[in-house]
TrEMBL record:
GO molecular function: acyltransferase activity, transferring groups other than amino-acyl groups
Ranges of residues in domain N-acetyltransferase: 178-330
Protein name, UniProt field: N-acetyltransferase domain-containing protein
Domain of life where this protein originates: Eukaryota
Cross-referenced InterPro entries: Acyl_CoA_acyltransferase (IPR016181), GNAT_dom (IPR000182)
Lineage: Eukaryota, Fungi, Dikarya, Basidiomycota, Agaricomycotina
TM segment ranges: none
One Pfam family recorded for the sequence: Acetyltransf_1
Length: 341
């Protein structure tokens, strides 16, 4: 590894309670881009406080210059399994040039190795696109574990605020009745089935039916999922769509799963439910913004989220601050142990 700039330094933390105020302030003041790190850190902090015996293989690493935190890397565990390497930065996207970020990526990789994180644990990295590309190349160079040729996920982060939320009433489809509501325990089997189908489309992070049932149970118990209940005339009601929001901080909620039963597609169910969930999160829960990631190649979802009020998804060519490309790159699945997120 090349010599590292002397003004960069890293800190390694293994427990959320040991994160200093400056790290918490950095995460909270960049809550949108920290949506993959801050909520899990908050959950870990609460778990450590409630249960002295709480143990997870969690590591947070900061990269700073003088008194400024530039990058935070997290490699943590959630209730569905081990998460990828997540990296957020306080730098604006236009400053993420190779020359600007390479020194920081190198010191983060050195710290990750110094922390004795098993190499097989680093199964993928998810971060703003230039950071992911450079981390993957440098990790392959240092460890010899090659990156997978095709990215796992290429998307842009977008956000919706109350002033931009499309407040139209739920679209009415006279051909069926519906109800938009928080999920209840009786919905778990249907949510489990839709979660299983969602994971089937999320290679390589498929779930077994047992795993999907466990995930659905936790979503309902934690009040992190809403359902679009629908019924055709003379037919029993069904769960047509689900929207989950599992990464939540004081000011930002992240929608992490949107899925519609193929039988109910092209009826506006996803748009109807996403709009209702955003209204709930922004008004009832008093969030300042709702974020989500939308794949570059998912034109249908892009259109739905644009209609709801998410920023930077129109066909216009101008850029919107905070709507940036993110990328997940995986590493040789013969040499790593996949988690789930």
């Amino acid at each position: 590894m090349p010599s590292l700039p002397s003004d960069l330094f890293t800190n390694i933390y293994r427990r959320a309670k040991d994160l200093p105020p400056k790290v918490w302030d950095t995460l909270k003041s960049n809550a949108r881009n920290a949506n993959v790190i801050l909520p899990q850190a908050l959950k870990a902090y609460t778990a450590e406080a409630d249960n002295p015996g709480y143990r997870r293989e969690n590591v947070w690493i900061t990269c700073s210059s003088r008194s400024n935190i530039l990058f935070i890397l997290a490699i943590t565990e959630g209730y569905t399994g081990a998460y990828p390497v997540f990296i957020m930065t306080t730098l604006p996207f236009h400053r993420l040039t190779d020359s600007s970020i390479r020194p920081c990526i190198n010191v983060l990789i050195k710290a990750l190795l110094d922390a004795r994180v098993p190499r097989h644990r680093v199964y993928s990295v998810f971060a703003p696109e230039p950071i992911t590309e450079l981390f993957a190349a440098e990790w392959e160079h240092v460890t010899g574990i090659r990156r997978e040729s095709d990215p796992y996920y290429a998307a842009k982060i977008t956000y919706c605020t109350l002033d931009k939320l499309d407040k139209r009433s739920s679209t009415v489809d006279q051909s069926f009745g519906y109800n938009l509501r928080p999920a209840v325990l009786g919905d778990i089997p249907a949510i489990s089935e839709l979660g299983f189908l969602f994971a089937e489309e999320s290679f390589p992070f498929q779930l077994s039916r047992h795993g999907a049932f466990e995930e659905a149970t936790l979503l309902v118990q934690n009040d992190e999922v809403w359902v679009h209940e629908a019924r055709l005339p003379g037919q029993p009601k069904e769960i047509a769509s689900i929207v989950a929001f599992t990464r939540n901080s004081e000011t930002v909620a992240a929608i992490t799963k949107v899925f519609t039963n193929p039988k109910w597609r092209r009826r506006g169910c996803a748009e109807r439910l996403v709009r209702r969930v955003c209204r709930y999160l922004l008004t009832d829960q008093k969030k300042e913004s709702v974020v989500l990631y939308v794949a570059h190649n998912n034109a249908a979802a892009n259109h739905v989220y644009h209609r709801v009020g998410f920023a930077g998804l129109s066909n216009d060519t101008f850029t919107v601050d905070g709507v940036d490309p993110w990328l997940e790159i995986g590493f040789d699945r013969n040499q790593v142990q996949l988690g789930h997120w």
